[in-house]
Amino acid sequence: MLAFQYIEDDASLAALVEQYQEADLLVLDTEFVRTRTYYARLGLIQAYDGKTLALIDPLAVSNLHLFWQLLKKESSVKLLHSCSEDLEVFAHYGQCQPTNLFDSQIAASLAGMGHGLGYAKLVEQTLEVSLDKGESRTDWIKRPLTEAQLNYAANDVYYLYKLYPQLVEKLKEQGRLDWIEEEGVRMTQGRLDLPCPDTAYLKVKNAFQLTSNQLAVLRDLASWRLKRALQKDLALGFVVKDHALIGLAKKQPKNSNDLYKLTELTEQEKRIHGKEICRIISNVSFDSPPKPLDVIALKTGYKVAFKTIKNCLTAQAEAHNIPIELLGSKKFIHEYLEWVWAGKQGDKPLILTGWREAIVAEPLYALKLQ
């Protein structure tokens, strides 16, 4: 059983933050529950500076402002593992992002230790310690937390602190320490942007199937759904699912009788949202509908161009011992191909910036893409 402080009042948190202000390295993790809610429900925050391991109870502490400010301290490294969801938590609850972010999963990938390593696997590989992951499905909102649950949470930062020097050393040996710093900056960019109702329709699955007028309907429905989800703190799919929005945009029921005939909506969705949906559809303006979505994968020559780029990046990834998923993901390839087909106008795609540019720019520019 690891020794830790359980922080459940403002005075204890203030004292902890004062101590952590002196730390050069702060290991962080969060435990949360996400089932039906739009935002994850924060249940626990773990922190460790090499001296004091703290489990902070956000349900008991009334004001976490001092802790959130600590994450923005420029002089300390914030160490997390596979931290995308943690960053979402920080953005929502603290309206902040950590500076000097070091993601140990990405670091291990850049160090040639394996791509997408889970925390337990990384600990076993570097420290030869086997962790018990039996509490991974804990309800972190329920109180009191058991001794086993608290120890599980403490392990998540304790061993990460222990393995950090090995990761740093490996990255230094390969001249890649600045790469992980660059990735940390990239991962936090845009995290504080609020969801935009006006563009929510662009994220609806299969929206590319719709005509301009149908997209006008989808735009208003998706905007309404997002606002409702935020208001009620519900996951989008627990308001109305994507395929139902597509069906509504295509069929555009004019009244409740038409709407109740639709098979895309559940009976519960019809009962709860039927009148509101009909009102929204009846008030859609078709004066300036969105343009049909331009899906790159449907363009002529896409398959050949994609394969050409992928083969080029795969060769570079193998030559430099970098996982292709990190060097040139499908998203990166699409972004690059769109830029090329747009006449190389505007900002360079991400793959042509930072450490990736030094590796792939020359071979990519040498490709002959149609």
UniProtKB/TrEMBL annotation:
Keywords: Cytoplasm, Exonuclease, Hydrolase, Nuclease, tRNA processing. Its cofactor is a divalent metal cation. It catalyses: Exonucleolytic cleavage that removes extra residues from the 3'-terminus of tRNA to produce 5'-mononucleotides. HAMAP family: RNase_D. It is an enzyme of class 3 (hydrolase). The keyword Cytoplasm applies. Its EC number is 3.1.13.5. Residues 211-291 form the HRDC domain. Gene3D superfamilies: HRDC domain (1.10.150.80), Ribonuclease H-like superfamily/Ribonuclease H (3.30.420.10). InterPro entries: 3'-5'_exonuclease_dom, HRDC-like_sf, HRDC_dom, HRDC_dom_sf, RNase_D, RNase_D-like, RNAseD_HRDC_C, RNaseH-like_sf. This is Ribonuclease D. Belongs to the RNase D family.
